[in-house]
Amino acid sequence: MKKILAVLMLVFACLWGTAFAADFSHLVIMHTNDTHGYDRRADGVNGMATVAALKKDYEAKGYDVLLVDAGDAIQDNNLVNFSKGKTAIDFMNAVGYDAMTLGNHEFDYGSDVTQARIKQAKFPIMSANIIVEATGKSFTPKTHVIVKKGGLKIGIFGLTTPSTVTTSNPKSTRGLTFLSKDAMYQAAQKEVDVLKAAECDLIVAIGHLGSEPDAAGDRSNDILENVKGIDVFIDGHDHTVKDLYINNALLTETGAHLANIGAVLYKNGKWTEDLHAYGRFNQEDARVKAMVDKAQADIDKQLSAVVGKTDMELNGSRDPGVRTEETNLGDFLADAYLWQVRHATVLERVTIDGALLNGGSIRSGIAAGDITQNDLLRVLPYHNHLQYITMKGATLLEVFEAATCTTPKAIGAFPQVAGITYTVDTTKPFEKGELYPHSTYYSPAKPGTRVTITSVGGKPFDPNATYNIAVPDYLTSGGDTYYSLTDPGKVTIHDVDYLDVDAVRNYLHEELGDHVGAAYAQPQGRITIIQ
Description:
With 531 residues, this protein is an alpha/beta fold. Helix content is 29%, strand content 27%. The strands form seven sheets. Strands 1, 2, 3, 4, 13, 14 and 15 form a seven-stranded mixed beta sheet that branches. The longest helix is centred in the first third of the chain and has 19 residues, at 2-20. The N and C termini lie far apart (78 Å).
């Protein structure tokens, strides 16, 4: 009798578990990431009105739709830049997002604007690894949320790349700690455990982390290898299409700029990505389309003025491009900075020897033909002010060695220059020194190992000479690898009251006669990469 009872109890337990197992067959997890304000449908861009229409299409077919975004939504394209991201959140509110995590570029306008966008959103914007140093509390009001879809309880939490301290303007993240590596894993595990304790049927992580090798320890892959209990990880940051399993969890990402819309479905006992590339689903929601079109029309009216022309395409591509090598657009912009700072300081009787800007600040190229104000702002959307810095050649060498630490692999710090020539020997390894404070990058142990500066200001380079170099203020805030430019023992910073985009427009008009000609047909041989 005892054996019979035991068998009956086992059968009952199995039937009970089967009867009450979560049914995911009517759930779709739609997701976007790194939209960067590319919210209007165009060639290769789905747009927010298509996201809204696809959501309604799934709902009409009987699906419950969870819609999330993995960050970098409010900055880059002029459609959202002029409102400091307010229009982006307006669009997302209209579409009906359920949750979002913060990307590094959510901080580009300052942390006060970040908080304003969080309050504006009708959905939770959250991150579990950003801590306010003064209080020890989370920067975001929520670190996780439980959303009910049909009969399901879905637990969602967010994570933001620790590299935000250098990939956004460091001024915007002062006073904040971005938990990294083990501390981030512990924070993520805590979120999972809380959501499991709340009896959630599904755990979804939204991470703006990426999978790039130079971020080892802080990637989505690392989270899934060190945190137990995540079912689906929606990723962003590295602008890559991803669809793979790590420790029984789906890791997926759509790329960038709404070229794809993610749709995760439960098929044959596992979560499966069903990516909607541009052109697969072409409907647009009329209400959202009207909002986006009106916002674009207002921007176009302001920015349609032609400010010059170019005989050739000016190359603003990322890789290969401004993050890996010299380009004609990099030359043009650096020349403009150098020209403008020289003119602004003429009464000071100082010699401005050169200029540099990081390739990551160049966000677009310019097609051959007319150049509009809109084109310039697409190339330089960050509104950096120009400065010049006084420093020894040895410090400049440290700057270049650090800024090319991953070359030939792309890096946002890669220096585009004017008045300077240098070589990077990538056959030699970058030797790490100490980790720069408030940074994810390392100082070079031996500046000059990989980088050789040949000339500055038309003269042979001298590590003991003093140079004045024009830069955008993002660099003197310690952005990317440029922490050494924040050290008052190494540099003296002088403000110049010109925005970067104004300097380029002035150079184009006053120096080039509104015409980019043959001088910029090709890169001018300022940078040599040995591979």
